[in-house]
Design goal:
Chain A: GO terms for molecular function: molecular carrier activity. Chain A: It is found in: Periplasm. Chain A: Keywords: Periplasm, Signal, Transport. The complex is a heterodimer. Chain A is of the alpha/beta class. Chain A has 16 helices and eleven strands. In chain B, α3 packs across α10 and α5 packs across α7. By secondary structure, chain B is mainly alpha-helical. Chain B has two domains: 35 residues; 240 residues, Orthogonal Bundle (MetI-like fold). Classes of the chains: A alpha/beta, B mainly alpha. Chains A and B meet through α1, β2 and α9 of A and α3, α7 and α12 of B.
Chain lengths: 338, 304
């Protein structure tokens, strides 16, 4: 008897689960999904709460916002393959534009939101161990043979691409030739002990597993990493670095299908309001609103930032030359392996 | 992450070695081997497992409870695992029994290839397994586009999680049953048929009782792997917090979000599920051995 009840219970449970799974495939429309790059988890957590509060006050509707995080390139790929993100907040122009090329975002997306769709900017800085034992202060120091650098894979990660461009540009914008830059960057990648797929993985490798001498990462990620390390790590601002521009965009095809365009656009516009910009500055992303920027200037050391256009004429050219199949990075990594 | 302990390939029962003769080796060899084994098991299994629990409770029992039950995303991850794993296991039980029966009872061209194909998911990297489904059902493919037009989502949604899990765990049940079916032979089944049983009656009254424990063993291993699956799920889930994160994915996410106590709290739940599985596995193994040594055990089972 007991056995029969148990068997029947089990069958009902499995059948119920089966039906649930099948039904779960039907699209649900009530929620926004933000497909974001890896190190922005804490930022979006706070922004989402603030926006949902605002939205409820205005429309009387409780809004659920879901997050997906991963390497910027992999996230773009997932959206192209059907991950139904209403908005994408990726690390690189090329990643967002890859979604445009797949036909999911309309052309000229960059002009649809204020400030070229840049609610905030950032840069790449160094994180080193307590007391800076290897005495690392500027880019040339990273080229020393006894220094091992942690940075994620530029093929999949936005952080990885910006780190690469920062290293390259740090040579070429200060009088070095392209050949010097290639030599410098090759030396460094040859000594990268672990090439993680995304920014947060690299942070864990450096901070938790304690591998490597210096971690090249987003300014915000560096600040969080140092805060969490209880004095074991320090930030070093190099004299120059790259101006990282993580664009945001609404995914037109998705919002039109789900009927969430108005909400998604309001969500993106909210980023430019002062309260949102304050949250952005609080998480150490550099705000673009002038008032907030002035108020929070003491949080952001004024280092010289060079734009990616100093490294290549267009993003397509940069992507093709450095990161595409068989590009500069592949060549470096292939020779490094030998 | 933590269910890995159970991931070893299923032991085939008929190859159980004879118990070694005691005292045939010199004492120092015995003690050295015993010591070495204890050291390895202790260092590789017991210490890491214990540390999961130590870390999980590092902020106290209250925090442990909070981490597990007062976080909507974590709750959803537990729920999702308890849904996805049983469905994948159920699918594999049906397919596994069918495949094992086909291979053990029939001789047909391509039988060897089929046997090899069943093992394929063991040798394919889980990441590849996940990508296969993305490439099959992704938006860029005709199937994916058609599904999308009809408002249905397979990858980046629970159906995709089930498919990927089922793919990765497919061999467990079939692999376990083929040797059992072959060892039992078809005699009893033929006797049943000759006495007038229909195919269906024969299957339920002769075949199933004979393979019962082997089947259960396969299901348990399959389930352990299904709950712990990470790689394939990572690819097909889209990593949407509170929607497609299963327990192993959630553990990784919590860990990466500097929330170690919560990550280990959830890991400890996975570990406990693994330990429960282990206990059941030992019980089933005993029963199975009994059944293998007494070929007619099914007929004598007193607990019916």
């Amino acid at each position: 008897m007991v056995r029969k009840v148990l068997t029947a219970g089990l069958i009902v449970y499995v059948l119920g689960a089966f039906v649930w799974v099948v039904l779960a495939g039907f699209a649900r429309n009530e929620q926004l999904l933000n497909v974001a790059c890896d190190p922005t988890r804490e930022l979006w957590h706070d922004i989402n709460i603030a926006f949902a509060k605002d939205y409820e006050k205005e429309h009387g509707v409780k809004l659920g916002i879901r997050q997906s995080h991963g390497g910027s390139g992999s996230q773009a790929r997932a959206v192209i393959d059907g991950l139904p993100g209403d908005v994408v907040t990726l690390a690189l122009w090329t990643d967002t534009d890859a979604i445009r090329k797949a036909g999911l975002i309309e052309p000229n997306w960059e002009d649809k939101l204020p400030n070229r769709s840049l609610p905030y900017i950032s840069t790449i800085v160094f994180v080193v161990r307590k007391g800076n034992p290897k005495n690392l202060h500027d880019w040339p120091d990273l080229g020393r043979p006894d220094v091992s650098v942690i940075t994620p894979n530029p093929k999949t990660s936005g952080n990885g691409k910006w780190s690469f461009l920062a290293m390259w540009g740090a040579i070429t914008t200060r009088g070095g030739t392209e050949a010097d830059a290639l030599e410098y960057v090759s030396q460094i990648y040859r000594r990268v002990p672990v090439l993680d797929a995304a920014a947060r993985g690299a942070t864990m490798t450096f901070a938790q597993k304690k591998i490597g001498d210096v971690h090249l990462t987003w300014e915000n990620e560096a600040q969080l990493e140092v805060q969490e390390a209880n004095g074991e790590l320090e930030i070093v601002y190099p004299k120059v670095s790259v101006l990282a521009e993580p664009h945001v965009a609404v995914v037109d095809k998705v919002v039109d299908r789900k009927g969430t365009r108005a909400t998604a656009e309001a969500y993106m516009k909210f980023l430019y309001t002062e309260p949102a910009q304050e949250i952005i500055a609080h998480h150490y992303y550099r705000p673009t609103n002038p008032a907030v920027k002035a108020r929070t200037a003491d949080r952001f050391p004024a280092i010289e930032l060079f734009p990616a256009s100093k490294v290549g004429p267009t993003w397509d050219a940069i992507q093709k030359r450095f990161f595409a199949e068989g590009g500069v990075f592949d060549q470096i990594y292939a020779t490094g392996k030998k | 992450m933590t269910a890995n302990v159970l991931e070893e390939a299923p032991a085939t029962v008929e190859h159980l070695p004879p118990p070694p003769k005691p005292r045939s080796d010199p004492w120092y060899v015995r003690y050295a081997l015993i010591g070495l084994t204890l050291l390895i098991v202790g260092g590789l299994v017991v210490v890491p497992l214990a540390s999961v629990f130590v870390q999980a409770f590092s902020k106290g029992v209250g925090a442990y409870w909070d981490n597990l039950f007062n976080n909507a995303d974590t709750r959803h991850a537990v729920f999702l695992t308890l849904i996805v794993a049983p469905v994948a296991v159920a699918l594999n039980t049906v397919f596994g029994v069918a495949a094992a029966y086909t291979i053990a009872r029939f001789r047909f061209p391509g039988r060897t290839i089929l046997t090899t194909l069943i093992d394929l998911p063991f040798s394919v990297s889980p990441v590849v397994a996940g990508l296969v489904f993305v490439l099959l059902f992704g938006l860029q493919t005709p199937i994916g586009a058609w599904l999308k037009d009809h408002g249905y989502q397979i990858i980046f949604a629970p159906p995709g999680l089930v498919l990927a899990t089922a793919f990765v765990t497919f061999p467990f049940v079939a692999r376990e049953l083929i040797p059992v079916l072959e060892a039992n032979g078809a005699d009893e089944e033929m006797a049943a048929r000759s006495l007038g049983a229909t195919g269906w009656q024969m299957f339920w009254r002769v075949t199933v009782p004979n393979i019962k424990w082997g089947l259960l063993y396969g299901i348990i291993l399959c389930n352990a792997r299904a709950m712990g699956e990470f790689g394939a799920i990572y690819v097909v889930s889209g990593r949407i917090g509170g929607q497609t994160d299963t327990m192993p994915l959630r553990v990784e996410k919590l860990f990466q979000e500097y929330n170690q106590p919560a990550a280990f709290a959830l890991a400890s739940v996975l570990t406990m599920l693994a330990l429960v599985t282990l206990v059941i596995k030992v019980v089933v193994e005993r029963k199975m051995r009994a059944q293998m040594t007494r070929p007619n055990a099914a007929a004598e089972e007193p607990t019916k």
